[in-house]
Design a protein that fits this description.
alpha/beta; Spore Coat Polysaccharide Biosynthesis Protein SpsA, Chain A; 2 domains; six-stranded mixed beta sheet; 10 strands; globular
Length: about 160
């Protein structure tokens, strides 16, 4: 599972959000963060907390995006990659940038300001794994008034595609 996280000026929440994503229980996953030209301390906080090291990374830019300034890998959080991209295009362009680097068959696009529970990914993927030939997407529906965390008090529903009439 490739978890794609676009961030722009998220210094207040970026560290707890990524800590929650990295704590998610799932057998194989990577977290790809795209810093979309933040002008606050977002990238600086990521560098400090996750001990980011610049890397030369080959990837195919299948989807055109604004130029990438640097790609970092974490020395203390396996599976965390941070891309620093020039500003432009908003959230969709940042997600496209991350998608170019994603390695796994399934992709999860999340907001950079939402904290997730440890089992949120497992709950969503159980619908996919029941029928992987037909499920093309999963969305969550919050069924409780709780605010601030996804996965708790929410239910998931599958989006299916069927070739039969």
């Amino acid at each position: 599972m490739s978890i794609l996280v676009p961030v722009c000026n998220e210094e207040a929440l970026v560290v707890p959000v990524l800590e929650s994503l990295l704590a998610m229980r799932y057998p194989e996953r990577e977290v790809v963060v795209v810093n979309d030209g933040s002008t606050d301390r977002t990238l600086e906080l990521l560098r400090e907390r996750f001990d980011l090291e610049p890397q030369e990374v080959f990837y195919r830019a299948v989807i055109p995006t604004a130029p990438i300034r640097a790609i970092y890998r974490s020395r203390n959080a396996p599976g965390l990659t941070v891309m620093d991209k020039e500003s432009g295009g908003g959230k969709a362009a940042a997600l496209n940038c991350a998608l170019n680097l994603a390695r796994y068959r399934y992709v999860l696009c999340v907001d950079g300001n939402t904290v997730y529970t440890e089992d949120a990914l497992l709950k969503g993927m159980r619908l996919v794994l029941r029928n992987p030939a037909e499920v093309i997407g999963v969305t969550s529906q919050n069924s409780s008034p709780s605010v601030g965390a996804c996965g708790s008090g929410s239910s998931a529903s599958a989006i299916t595609c069927s070739s039969s009439p």
